[in-house]
Amino acid sequence: MFKEFLSVFVENVLLAFAPLLASLAAAWLLAKARKAWLDFKELHNGEAWMLEEIASLAVKAAEQAKLSEFITDKKAYACKIATEWLKARGLNINVDLIDAAIEAAVFTEFNKPAIQ
Asked: How many CA atoms lie within 13 A of 64 on its CB side?
């Protein structure tokens, strides 16, 4: 009887804290990505500008491709487009930095003030 009570209690506690733990993990990952991006921008300003530009274009291309049902995974498509574009120009940039640039472009693109 006590074992069953303890098991249910622990399960409920874990279920109650799971959303909090998940959001904390997501916030931590976002902070790490932002830090990596800022460090990269500080060391490689020209490449960072180019990466920001292609990330923005890749995000817009992914949005259009998703709307036309050409793709299902927008982020994977945007990362692929950005990586291929950069490699074609001889820039070998870490995939994590490309991922961070895509996330930043998504945040920027979808948090613009509405035009009135």
From this structure: 6
pLDDT recorded at residue 89:
86
Mean pLDDT of 85-109: 85
Which of 64, 63, 38 lies closest to 52, judged by CA?
Answer: 38
What is d(CA 89, CA 67) in angstroms, rounded to the nearest whole number?
28
Q: DSSP assignment, residue 113? A: P
Burial label, 69 (beta-carbon count in 10 A; 0-12, 13-18, 19+): exposed
**pLDDT tens track for 32-88:** 877 877 887 888 778 888 888 999 999 999 999 999 899 999 999 999 999 999 889
Whether the CB-CB separation of 56 and 109 falls below 8 Å is answered with yes
Cα–Cα dist 101/82, whole Å: 9
CA distances from 88 to 50, 92, 112 (A): 13, 9, 30
**Higher confidence at residue 104 or residue 81?**
81
